[in-house]
Design a protein that fits this description.
Elements (H helix, E strand, L loop, with lengths): L1 H20 L7 H4 L6 E7 L2 E7 L6 E10 L2 E13 L2 E8 L5 E9 L2 E5 L8 E7 L2 E10 L2 E11 L2
Antiparallel strand pairs: 1-2, 1-10, 2-3, 3-4, 4-5, 5-6, 6-7, 7-8, 8-9, 9-10
């Protein structure tokens, strides 16, 4: 009987050692697929410096921060996150640190992602894509009954 118990204990220890040696747990595939967005991105438009920081995916979430600065100081900031929810992946924004708006994932491909919330005033879509010239961020939707869009291109910054 003691040989059986020793065998079981050794087996469990062996499994534990194999699991520990396999390294850290793998990231959830959905959010991990957006790692191409991670980094510090900078663009300048009409004298305003735009900065967007995306942390690498971990724990099913990417945390982000956006700020615009001009010669007078801070113009705008926004807390951001892309997370895995019960209903799927979503982009969550908190402009100026107030309330949140959720944009569920609409589509994703290598180097491109679209989030959409048709109930939101503007924008209804948030699109990121990575091109040779940098990270493109685009917002689009209806504003005052008209289709509008804005796009920015940001380079890796310091």
């Amino acid at each position: 009987m003691s040989k059986i118990i020793i065998g079981l204990v050794m087996g469990v220890l062996g499994l534990f050692a194999a699991y520990s040696a396999s390294g850290p747990r793998q990231e959830k595939p959905g959010v991990a697929a957006l790692e191409w967005m991670a980094g510090f991105w900078v663009g300048i438009e009409h004298g305003t410096r735009m900065e967007e920081l995306w942390m690498r995916p971990a724990g099913g979430v990417m945390l982000g921060l956006h700020r615009d600065i001009d010669s007078a100081g801070l113009v705008w900031f926004e807390y951001l996150r892309i997370e895995t929810t019960e209903s799927g992946i979503a982009y969550v924004t908190s402009p100026q640190g107030h309330g949140t708006t959720v944009f569920p994932l609409k589509e994703a491909a290598r180097g491109r992602v679209v989030f959409e919330n048709l109930e939101h005033d503007f924008p209804q879509r948030i699109i990121y894509r990575l091109e040779d010239d940098g990270l493109h961020a685009r917002v689009e939707g209806l504003e005052d009954g008209k289709v509008k869009a804005r796009e920015w291109i940001w380079k890796k910054g310091q």
